[in-house]
Amino acid sequence: MKDVAILGGGIAGMATAARLQAAGLTTEVFEAHGRVGGCAGYFRQRGFSFDVGATTLVDFESGGVGGELLESIGMSPLSGEALPGYVAWLPDRTVTLYRDQHLWAHERLEKLGSSAAHQRLWALLDQLACVFWEASRKGIHLPLQTVGDVLNAVRCVGLSHLHLTRYMLFSMGDILNTFTLRDDLALCALLSMLIEDTVHSHIDHAPLINAALGITIRGAGLTRHSGGMYGFWKRFVEHFKGLGGVLHVSCKIEHVQKYGDGYEVYTSQGVFGARQVVSALPLPVTAAVAPSIVGRQLAYYLKRDEQSLGGAAVVFLGVSDSEVAGQSFTHHQLLQTYDAPLGDGNNMFVSVSAAGDTLSSPAGYRSVMISTHCAIEDWEHCSPTDYEAQRRAYGDRLVNYARRVYPNLATNPLVYEIGTPQTYAHFTGRPRGAVGGVKQTLSNTNQNAVPNDIGAKGFWLVGDGTWPGLGTVACVLGSRVVAEAVQRQHRLVKSSHTTKGKHHE
Residues 198, 47: contact at Cβ < 8 Å? Predict the structure, then answer.
């Protein structure tokens, strides 16, 4: 019997498993797909590696959330391209989102307005980002469930910054209205793009602190690993196995039941025992396979958030260097028009592998990913013929939009694939193809988020359905919170058994 069974080999599940294995517990990971990664995964075709969701790793340098993970498991730093930033293409201007804070401070005032109100807004966002990025790096726990959580939050935020926690009650729209900037078209368009890309929410509903973190995410450091997520996972899995961790792929979870002081995990490859279980599966899947107490506890959250789910569509291209020539940055975010809602190409992200990265593509070629948010409903209930026609037209539209940046893009591609919510449902096991957790609002985030501890002894939740959830950096932070809780429970049980043994003597 292992100490811990981890259900799901996405970034949250694998990070949790690696932490626990490095800490001396025995772990076993069960992944239904043929490879790890989930929505931070990859696929390979004709010598190209494509990222299926996340294309960069956030805050993985020394001292960051991801850097702490690597240090805690004894893994060497990332190898790849540290992005200096990326370019946002608005309908009437471009804005370079520099990682360097001095360059960014100058750029945003020059391109988006320099009035006193603009300066006050940026000063507040900078302050919130600075304080709460640091709190994340120190391992803050939310929602607050115990006195220990409260004391830890005070430690992470700091007494001198506790007054900033009042902003947990504000949305981004509230602050824009306060500064009378809600009607500033270009400013709000850029903020909307960054917010949708990170917290998947509308500018008027996004929680202010979460939005501030998302808006400043490139300042925390974006790295595209050599080979993209393929290169990262190749190294990570090798390291995990070197620690003694066990990984089962193509191994679907059928159900989990309580058994004595632990759990039995029934899978397509047999039954496995574990003293504790961590589920990194999507919450609806967790509720369906977990012991009934977990399903009952999750029912409220699943009902509450069923209208807050979103999907994504991606075009994957394998092209020659010449088709992506002419740009000094490899990542770009595009808005087509101010007059339409975001999504379906009106706000899309273009990620290009670095020149010379032969793990990502053959020499002389590049891997390109074009992604956008979309409504799940638009892809449901299609006939096979209608679905294929819609998928092809959608992909062609995204490529055409991307030609604003790369005019020769996909003129002669070696690979041209299109992923939709149905693709995510099939390959990553996402119910309905929903990705990235819920669209964050004040009513479902932070203190109102799904807790990692759902109230079933020895059964924990981690991943983008919980707090913290959205994005690679949040999933990595969640793995830290859960790994610490699992270790506390492990020590408590071990101590209890020792005490009982002494009493029997």
Answer: no
**DSSP 8-state code for residue 55:** -
153: part of which helix (H) or strand (E)? helix 147-157
Which residue type, as a one-letter code, is found at position 75?
M
Give the helix/strand (H/E) hosting 81.
Answer: strand 80-82
* Structure tokens belonging to residue 150: 């409260």
- Enumerate residues 6+ apart whose C-beta is below 8 A from 425: 431, 432, 433
pTM of the model: 0.95
> Amino acid identity, residue 234?
K
- Residue 163: Cβ-neighbour burial (10 angstroms; 0-12, 13-18, 19+): exposed
Complete DSSP assignment for 300-319? HHHHHHTTS--EEEEEEEEE
Class of the CATH-defined domain 311-431? alpha beta
> CA-based Rg of the chain, rounded to a whole angstrom?
22
Contact residues for 400 (Cβ-Cβ < 8 A; gap 6+): none
Distance CA 139, CA 485 (A): 12
Cα–Cα dist 282/466, whole Å: 9
Fold assignment, 2-81+225-307+436-498: FAD/NAD(P)-binding domain (3.50.50)
DSSP 245: -
Closest among 434, 432, 424 to 464, alpha carbons compared: 434
CB 318 within 8 A of CB 45: yes
> What are the structural domain ranges in the chain?
2-81+225-307+436-498, 102-219, 311-431
Q: Torsion angle, CA of 326/330/333/334, rounded to 10 degrees?
A: 20
Q: Is 299 helix (H, G, I), strand (E, B) or coil?
A: helix
The DSSP bridge partners found for residue 339 are: none
Assess contact for 254 and 266: CB atoms under 8 A. yes
Per-residue pLDDT of the chain (505 residues; tens, 9 = 90+): 999 999 999 999 999 999 999 999 999 999 999 999 998 999 999 999 999 988 999 889 888 999 999 999 999 998 888 899 999 999 999 999 999 999 999 999 999 999 999 999 999 999 999 999 999 999 899 999 999 999 999 999 999 999 999 999 999 999 999 999 999 999 999 999 999 998 899 999 999 999 999 998 877 788 999 999 999 999 999 999 999 999 999 999 999 999 999 999 999 999 999 999 999 999 999 999 999 999 999 999 999 999 999 999 999 999 999 999 999 999 999 999 999 999 999 999 999 999 999 999 999 999 999 999 999 999 998 899 999 999 999 999 999 999 999 999 999 999 999 999 999 998 888 899 999 889 999 999 999 999 999 999 999 999 999 988 778 889 999 999 999 999 999 999 887 766 665 555 5
**What are the φ/ψ torsions at residue 199 (nearest 5 degrees)?**
-110, 5
